[in-house]
Amino acid sequence: MPGPITLHLPDLAATGRLAARLAPRLRPGDAVLLEGPLGAGKSAFARALLRALAGDPGLEVPSPSFTLVQSYELPGGWEAHHYDLYRLSGPAEVAELGWEEARDGLVIVEWPERLGGLRPEGALVVRLAYGAGEEERVAVLSGWDGRMGEVG
Amino acid sequence: MDRDAAVLGLESSCDETAAAVLRADGSILAEAVLSQLAEHSPYGGVVPEIAARAHLDHLPRLVAQVMAEAGLDYPRLAGVAATAGPGLIGGLIVGSSLGKGIALAHGLPFVAVNHLEAHALTATLPGLVPDPIRFPYLLMLLSGGHCQCVAVEEVGRYRRLGTTLDDAVGEAFDKSAKLLGLPWPGGPALERLATRGDPARIPLPRPLLGRAGCDFSWSGLKTAVAHAVARSAGTGQDRADIAAAFQASVAAVLADRARHALDMLPGATALVVAGGVAANQGVRAALAGAAAQRGLPLVAPPIRLCTDNAVMVAWAGIERLRRGLTDEVGHAPRPRWPLEAMAAPAAAA
After folding, report:
1. What range does the record give for the signal peptide (chain B) (predicted)?
2. Is A24 an interface residue toward B (CB < 8 Å)?
């Protein structure tokens, strides 16, 4: 079984290219969990992924920190739901945010630590960390054991 | 509409529960605002389910209170206006359902108010500025959930000139404050810390400064704050200097964006600022400077009318009722409701 894949992303454009490679692999029912500290680029990654999924490089993807979840209709008649759980205290509140219905589509989750028992099995986990340079990031992809080969 | 006709306004789109009774001449007969700050602060922000429950607990009582203070019975109202979006869906349902119920029970017209429109029209409230403000004017809405430049051309006619490409400016304040170890709400705490700091010692980027248009981007500035905090020795002076640099960057960018937006709206009579970030004195001074460079006044409603309140909702209701713009009680609240969408129903009415 392949282990986690570590990718060096020298700049935001590299993040966009990784998102563009991932987007066509995503299916209804999938979950992408974005981990990493404040400012590591979770929202930027989610934005790139949603734009790639929508096929619209200019798609407006506002931060969901305030509304906690933003939903997007995707070409092909399915939906993606972008969650930011930063301000929640736990899974009971996640359930109130239409989580169960959202799982029919794609969920992209920032601060997935708050999911507790709701954390989906078989999710793609993208852990982002600061790199050496100002714009540089390191992404560690894990969780997609059977599907990981498609990504790297 | 008679000058002494009164409208009941309800606001519950986010973390304030508010009710107000306003006369058509702009005089406030009664108002009450209940901030859910205490209930939310353990979470470092607004949590929607808690917000919905709190609105449900408090709004009916606030309505009874303002009606009693105004000395009015429901049948004597000229209408009921409630915020119906954009915002957190639970709170929107509570407020607009209560408003519709009152309207239905007493045979009154109902107005579903767009929260952003209410902010946009606050500046036309009589008595707010010595000279009544005229259309068109530029609105900069700067809050925790919104960051946009809007051309306000007429009641019901709005054009968004620019918006944030990522975070709202109030969110940048809150998250940077968190990185600096400050308590929520971060904006006021960061402003206090910044007064002791040197904005030049640890310079921070000024995203989109000088770029065409009037869009915003704050996510890179937040990341730069994270880097600066990590690199510093973490002394009190370091933190104060980073806070001062952050505020200086935000003020400089907002002033630059304001100048660009004013150039996109020839004939603008004023720069109007609304939203919680408008309470920041550094931001206000920078925006006043930008407006003055274009020979225009900065109109900043008093803070209590800048943040979420029901007076602005009642006033938007009055302005719409004057134009015969009412809504069916079947009107569904809309968590996302861009201002441009206002034009369509107005034209159809």
Report:
1. none
2. no
For CA atoms A86, B39, B97, B103, the dihedral sign is negative
A71 C-beta neighbours (distance < 10 Å), count: 17
**Within 10 A of A149 (CB to CB), how many other CB atoms are there?**
10
**Partner-chain contact A63 B88, CB within 8 Å:** no
Q: Which fold does the domain A5-146 belong to in CATH?
A: Rossmann fold (3.40.50)
Predicted confidence (pLDDT) per residue in A94-135, tens digit: 877 789 989 999 999 999 999 999 999 999 999 999 988 888
> CB–CB of A53/A140 below 8 Å?
no
Question: Measuring CA to CA, which residue among B64, B105, B66 is closest to residue B311?
Answer: B66
pTM beyond cutoff 0.90: no
Tokens describing residue A86: 């930063």
What's the complex ipTM?
0.80
B337 chain-A contacts, CB cut-off 8 A: none
Contact B43 A88 (CB under 8 A): yes
Domains delineated in chain B:
6-122+305-348 (3.30.420.40), 136-300 (3.30.420.40)
Residue B284 to residue B167: CA distance in whole angstroms: 20
- A87·B47 Cβ contact <8 A: yes
Could you read off the pLDDT of B45-66 as tens digits, one per residue?
A: 555 556 777 888 899 999 999 9
